[in-house]
Amino acid sequence: MKAITAAVKERNACEMKVRDLEKQKKDAAQDLQDVSQGKKTLTTLFKDKSDTGGLANKIDNFDREIESMQKLTDLLTIYLCEKVLASFKREKLSLYNRILSQIQVVEICNAHALASFWARLLAIPKIKEAAMHA
What we know:
Number of strands: 0
Number of helices: 3
Shape: rod-shaped
Distance between the termini: 60 Å
Strand content: under 5%
Number of domains: 1
Largest sheet: none
């Protein structure tokens, strides 16, 4: 169970990384727009129009990284759902079925023992006679 939990946490971490990269891309795109328009902000204070190529490359790198991380997240999701959780479910159901089978065997043995007890008890002549008069 701990391994499955750890795998799901890693998948969620990949998803968070995608969101973080998208935010960084959005910030870089805003910086590119600000530099292109000649606006000065805290992040673009030391940049000029010649830095737009570098910002555009940075945005392209974010796009590629986002795409890769999204594919990894999708792959982990598919693997966890179709392989890991399915085999975990099969294993646990098999164990559950074996436990239930053992409980059934014990209950049947208990029922036989109880029936045998009452049969021997009713075979005692005094009890048999008392049961007939009741």
